[in-house]
Amino acid sequence: MNTRTRRTAPTWFVATIAGFFGLFYAYAVWAGISYLVVMAQTASAFGGALTPVSWVAMIMTIVVPIATFAVAVLIGRRREAWKLILLLLVGLALTAVFWLNVQGFTSTQIVFQ
């Protein structure tokens, strides 16, 4: 009978890794909130409002980092430490690409009504 043992990282190490990367994800969430507030204030200052598509895009800049962090931690918590780190890095890369897409969208499209 062939038994394979899975090597997993200790819980304290997983929590430390998740906490460290959580700071970067929290910064992405904070940047999304800040960008949404600034764009809404700018639109209001010019007597307009954000378009519905702009609202959705900017709210997604807040939701995407939270969702990718949660998925990466849920998938990687019972794996080896390097796999968790890799999943969290991929999640950060996905968040960064989405953020750049929203920046490109809001700088080239009409976002005020």
- Report the average pLDDT across residues: 89
Biggest sheet character:
none
Number of strands: 0
Content-based structural category: mainly alpha
Shape: elongated
**SSE run:** HHH
DSSP summary: helix tally: 3
β-strand percent reads under 5%
* Percent of residues in helices: over 70%
| Poorly predicted sequence stretches spanning 5 or more consecutive residues | none
Please give the alpha-carbon distance between the first and last residues.
69 Å
Radius of gyration over all CA atoms, rounded:
19 Å
The number of domains is 1
Describe this structure as you would to a colleague.
The longest helix is centred in the N-terminal third of the chain and has 35 residues, at 11-45. α1 (11-45) runs antiparallel to α2, α1 (11-45) packs parallel to α3 and α2 runs antiparallel to α3 (81-108). This protein is mainly α and 113 residues long. Helices cover 78% and strands 0% of the residues.
